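pls design
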């Protein structure tokens, strides 16, 4: 699924983050626990250097608890990375962020200095909700916030921490079509660009292999067929997603499936695993190397041509 993004927003955010990053002591990166890989912003890794990062796997109430555990151990293998999982009951949990900040930035303790922490993350992962919970008051607007770049906000917390809201908007990754599908599945992308037949088929294929029992139970099927379209056909029929002529309406069932996934009716579901991340990263490396080689070959060709003239 193709993602649309505005280069202007991307460059502005990059400039602003580059400018403030050196002053930060710790980064709080908010991820969606259902897609801890696809909800990463590539710039965080690029611009953080060796600064400590607390990765929050947010909306854990909608994710697969076992997978959240696996993701946390996987992510913590990286130097300077600690993880926390949060659900809707953040108020009783956010003290863990404060404790981790002090643990990860120990040299500031005892001095009259604030720990500067920047919250980063792509839209809709729950940054504003987290900021409000940490601040114990409403300082950031939550929910369907328009895609505009606001001025950067600083919030002073009681425990010697100065919180910085992300300057500008952080875009999701664009390099791989999987990211687009998974982000659309969790509603991180606006609905107008979603083709539900296509998305439904992508998600069906994954769920059939990762959560077959849940699908059979929810859609009252005794067994799962081979292909995702066959599943959509069978489940769609059971749920009355039919058009005139008794044809299954795949887009209608796709939309129903995605809505049930998003609302948690199918239970906690995680749409990607650390193994998938490793595999996709390796594939991306190969694709990048290939693109580089092609570029170099083209340049060589061009140089040869100009030498001849
Ligand atoms: N289920 C669930 N929803 C959450 C959680 N945290 C935030 N949300 C919801 O996610 C939506 C986006 O949150 P917001 O804080 O505005 O995200 P932001 O764009 O990153 O600032 C809102 O509707 C929140 O109520 C959570 O832990 N679980
Ligand atoms: Mg926000």
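designed seq:
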């Amino acid at each position: 699924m193709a993602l649309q993004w505005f280069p202007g927003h991307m460059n502005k955010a990059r400039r602003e983050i580059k400018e403030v990053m050196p002053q930060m002591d710790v980064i709080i990166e908010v991820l969606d626990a259902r897609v801890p890989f696809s909800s990463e912003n590539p710039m965080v890794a690029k611009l953080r250097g060796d600064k400590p990062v607390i990765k929050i796997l947010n909306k854990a109430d909608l994710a697969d608890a076992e997978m959240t555990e696996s993701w946390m151990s996987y992510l913590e293998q990286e130097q300077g990375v600690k993880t926390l999982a949060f659900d809707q009951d953040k108020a009783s949990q956010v003290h863990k962020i404060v404790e981790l900040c002090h643990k990860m930035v120990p040299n500031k303790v005892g001095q009259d200095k604030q720990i500067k922490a920047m919250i980063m993350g792509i839209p809709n992962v729950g940054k504003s909700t987290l900021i409000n919970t940490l601040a114990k008051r409403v300082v950031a607007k939550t929910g369907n916030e328009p895609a505009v770049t606001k001025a950067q906000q600083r919030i002073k917390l009681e425990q010697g921490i100065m919180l910085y809201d992300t300057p500008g908007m952080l875009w999701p990754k664009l390099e791989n079509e999987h990211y687009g599908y998974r982000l659309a599945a969790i509603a991180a992308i606006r609905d107008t660009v979603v083709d539900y037949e296509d998305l439904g088929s992508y998600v069906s294929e994954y769920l059939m292999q990762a959560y077959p029992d849940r699908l059979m139970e929810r859609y009252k099927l005794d067994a799962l067929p081979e292909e995702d379209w066959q599943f959509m056909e069978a489940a769609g029929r059971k749920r009355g997603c039919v058009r005139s002529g008794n044809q299954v309406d795949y887009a209608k069932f796709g939309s129903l499936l995605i809505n049930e996934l998003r609302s948690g009716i199918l239970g906690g579901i995680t749409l990607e695993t650390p193994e998938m991340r490793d595999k996709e990263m390796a594939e991306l490396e190969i694709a990048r190397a290939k693109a580089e080689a092609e570029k170099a070959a083209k340049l060589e060709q061009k140089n040869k041509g100009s030498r001849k003239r």
